[in-house]
Amino acid sequence: MKVGIIGTGYVGLPTGVGLAELGHEVVCIDAIKEKIADLKAGKITLFEDGLEDLFHKNAASGRLRFTSDMKEGVKDADIVILAVGTPSHPVTKEADMKYVHAAARELALHLTGYTVVANKSTVPVGTGDEVEKIIREVNPSADFDVVSLPEFLREGFAVHDFFNPDRIIVGANTEKASAAIKELYKPFGDKAHMLFVKRRSSETIKYASNAFLAMKIHYINEMANFCEKSGADVYEVAKGMGLDTRIGAKFLNPGPGYGGSCFPKDTNAMACMAKKYGVEMSLIETTIRRNDARKVEMAERILKAVDGKAKPKIAVLGLAFKGGTDDCRESPAMEIINALLKHDVTITAYDPKAMKTAEKLVGNRINYAADAYEAAKDADVLAVLTEWSDFKSLDLAKLKTLMKVPKIVDLRNLLNVNEAKRLGFDCQGIGR
Predict the structure, then answer these.
(1) What is the pLDDT of residues 332-386, one digit of tens each?
(2) Rounded CA separation 251/215 (Å)
(3) Residue 258 falls within a domain, yes or no?
(4) CA-to-CA distance for 218 and 288, rounded, in angstroms?
(5) Which of 8, 47, 133, 410 has the smallest CB count inside 10 Å?
(6) In total, how many domains does the chain have?
(7) CATH of the domain at 142
(8) What angle do CA 323, 408, 387 make, to 5 degrees?
(9) Among 331, 340, 328, which residue's Cα sits nearest to residue 301?
């Protein structure tokens, strides 16, 4: 099939590469000409494990192309996928639909023949109706259907998740549109696990899923606080809970709070939609409020570790919101750093992939190290903020020789706490 994808971010680019690998002819479209120039030159514009090799393979084969010209990108396309951003509005916190609406208006001008327009952006309920209305107003003669095709790619695991989907949700109101999406994913065979629902149900599923997972993370973080006070071990508690198939083991890892491009944005959007329809969402609203507070509380833990020190030096390991990605949007690490910077401290940070991304957000307000050991040099405390697997194998004995004070606040529970204490570290974790 011929597929156009509007947007080349953390959703659009992995989806485009994946569909090209399945054998489709894919054109990725982006209004940012500099980004398209980089992609055409073979320079991948984001980090996702396993993405780069597939990117080069499919670009070389000609199945994956890039353009900033909408007409060129959607010409003769069977399916056009909208994968543009839907950021939170800075005031209302509802999903900002300006990019989706703009893409729909421009796309409408160039539709030829029957085309399925698939919303893969995370959008509020009723967006499919709005996109359909916009296209009909701009191009009354267009032959098209609008479907909801929400993405469920985890950042850091997007390539794996694309090729191993636990479900593909399709919100289609016509059989013709459903048939086109079936053809799109036909190469998956029985792996597709496709569920066809109403368009508005599909739009709700993504928000409902992310809000539930955010609540699950918030729950285990509160349970970690209880374990710290009561003498229990949150990992033993989580393991016992996870063995219950009604609960499951995933998303029961305590930490500094959820972050990233999805959970904060989608929980806020879900709460806003509920208010619009006059529905109370007390669990989601409490989760949002307490998750925001948790990051401040985590910063306070780090500050407590250097209490009494004049302009203490804090070494930070991890800037991305999670391991496996360079994305720092709504990163707990970045929010903790911003809270720390309200005090008279010096911060030196290291992240395996997110240094350049973080620098765009905090600039020279912090220092950047070439590796974890350089970050730790002369530090009064070492704070682990992102769960990069690289940090699990740090040489703790070497760290101790470099640090001014052997103190660790491990907010991801990555380090071997028993080994750290044996070496003389004051090592604090989460939920123990």
Answers:
(1) 999 999 999 999 999 999 999 999 999 999 999 999 999 999 999 999 999 999 9
(2) 10
(3) no
(4) 9
(5) 133
(6) 1
(7) 3.40.50.720
(8) 10
(9) 340
